[in-house]
Design brief:
The chain is mainly α. The chain has one domain: UDP-galactose 4-epimerase, domain 1 (Alpha-Beta Complex), CATH 3.90.25. The chain has five helices and no strands. Helix 1 packs across helix 3. The two termini are about 30 Å apart.
Amino acid sequence: MLQSLRKKVKEVGNKLGLDTKIQHIENPRIEDEQLHYYNLIHEKLYQLGFKARHKLEEELEIMLTDLSKYKHRLIAKQDQILPKVGWKD
């Protein structure tokens, strides 16, 4: 699931003319990923009445277009955005 999401972000980013790269960030958690699987699909929002207005690709295009306006700020703050915690250490 996560791999397909990465690919979608890369595809949409490339479509928008962005130099999109997939960067692996090591999982800082020490738990076994198979035993502590995080399900990306949540039904709770739908149960509360959420209705998607856009397909995933459309929403990614909207998000990346909006974020592109602040690219210089995101790059300057990437040290605060990317994880620093390493529970394995």
